[in-house]
Amino acid sequence: MPGTIPFANVTLNPGETDLGPGAVDDDSVQFTITVDRTPAGGLNSLDGTTSVTVMVAQSGDGGATWGNLGGATFMGGTILDRHGNPRTFDTAQSWLIGGTGRELKIIVTVNGASALVVGGSLTTT
Question: Which of 29, 96, 27, 11 is nearest to 59 (CA)?
């Protein structure tokens, strides 16, 4: 059964911030993280000197230890899709480590001198 861990638009200063954690369904094998580019102060509002790195980490021991699963870095500025329209979101996807009682968190790193509004969701399937 899929699950979604939303993260509301939040203004983050440069540096690293943890969002979550949230529980993962025992049957889930994959995650997709989606970052909304459109809020005021979000990626589409800024230039290429600001970026955001989102990394998904998993714990199987109640949050005592975490292991990074994967993620991506998304650049600020207006990025066009294949039709010439501004992209409204970015995604990254990877596999989960099997197990029960798992938790996920999102490690967000704002790179550059500007604060950034970040929001989106982490979905497991």
Answer: 96
